[in-house]
Amino acid sequence: MSPQAPGGRGAGRARGPRSVCRLLARRALGFCARDAGVAHRRNLGLLREIMCQESTKFKNVWTTHSASPIAYERGRIYLDNFRCCISSIAQEPRILYQKPKCSKSEKIEDALLLECPLGEMLPGPLDYKSSLIVLTVQNWLLRLSADSGEVLEKIYLAGSCCKFRYLSWDTPQEVMVVKSAQNKLPAAARQAGIQQSVLFHLAVFQVLPLSFVGMLEINKKIFGNSVTDVAVSNGILIVMYSMGLVRLYNFQAITEQFMEQPFDLGHEFNWNGQVGVVGKYPFGLPCNIKITDTPPLLFETSSLENAFQIGGYPWHYIITPNKKKHKGVFHICSLKDNTLAKNGIQDMKCCSLEPDWIYFHPDMSGRIIHVGPNLIKVLKFKEVKNNTDQTEIAEDFMIVANRENCVNDAVTVTASGRVVKKRFNLLDDDPEQETFKIVDYEDELDLLSTVAVTQIGADGRAHLDFHCNEHGILLKSIPLLESWDVTYSHEVYFDKDLVLHIEQKPNRRFSCYVYQMVCDTAEEDECSSHEKTERSFCKKGGRIFEYI
């Protein structure tokens, strides 16, 4: 008999050499029956089954309002320009920290959540806990404790020569990019004939521990006069131009070729006649990557509004032909040779105020999601028979809005027999018809979530639906109790057993509605209906919260 797996009847026997080699090989590939990842995946599978049961409800446990934007990230709700952090996990709001009011010079421009990498030794115990990287209006980069708001690290980026405004990931949770606003000369300087050649500054960091990779300028003498924007993503420098042109460069090759000297944070430096400490006030960071010649071009294409995406397997890209009449038409082409895939032109031919949108599925399956007002198409790549060099775009599944009660007859007959002809047809995204507004993917539960809205008069109703990510089958529908106005800006987050709806009303009024998964009782059934229920109010940390 062959040795049994751990925990079986033969668990006490010694394993044979073949079994040991097989076990070591599986462990090298990341498979281990007792590791935390296996238990976590099993727990998430159970959570998905419980959540999709008919008896499971989502209850609006509390609501709060704010005069400033509200942000959400991993169970934490940020208000008052990130000065107040509230845990969304408990059924009652729990303020994790609240900082005193700050001056305009300390205003936070952007933020990223930083989480501990797995399998790496870090300098200090606090590095193993989640932290928030924030960028202030005065060019300070701060690392704050996500639970207490304590400042863990401070880095001064630069003086008044540039204004850093944006944070983004080059590689998520590994390499971070800080981008400046576009440098523009004052009108008086332009009238005097002064030229501005530097358009953007980019500062690149590795994270946990934070280390400085380098800073570079995007200069129009190198990249051209019509540059409108720039980004770094997945090791690629992306440069966008006013005429719709998009060019890609190898950022790693640029760093290696044009870096004049590496620098470490906190170390003294002597640079261009300046002596100071890297990352400290008033010197900040040296611009140590000087691009003196046009780097080798990896790829270029032209697309309407610079819309360009890469994904799929084999690699493909999505663009819209660079003419306004082609808005809403998407071309899916091979990155290898720019050939159009079979069935690679996707056009929903919808007549709507808001355009349809398309993107590569974030589940890394290589599929494509195409969202229109009343239709969601999930597309996949297939090999073309008798032609291994070409791929075909095929439909994997569709999700269709519920418009059974929609009546849009061009001709109607009144009770008196008079024939009335309509002079116009309803738009595909007319508020009185159910329309898809948000489509998202919950990676831990492997669910595709959609928000569909119907608005009749001033009263709009929305529901959040969960679909099987593999086949598109509807598994659960959750009604959102608050009225949904289609003219407002909305965000909906679905995070395991939590649903969060953030709404922006006119005059910078923001509302946050928190829903949590609960077991079914008669009381919960009442709270899940659209009927008005009693609400109570409480005050915590100077902020008013509303309960059902």
Automatic annotation (TrEMBL):
Organism of this sequence: Geococcyx californianus (Greater roadrunner)
Protein name per UniProt: DCA17 factor
Gene Ontology BP annotations: protein ubiquitination
Pfam families found in the cross-reference section: DCAF17 (PF15802)
Entries under InterPro entries matching the protein: DCAF17 (IPR031620)
Signal peptide: none
Single GO cellular component term: Cul4-RING E3 ubiquitin ligase complex
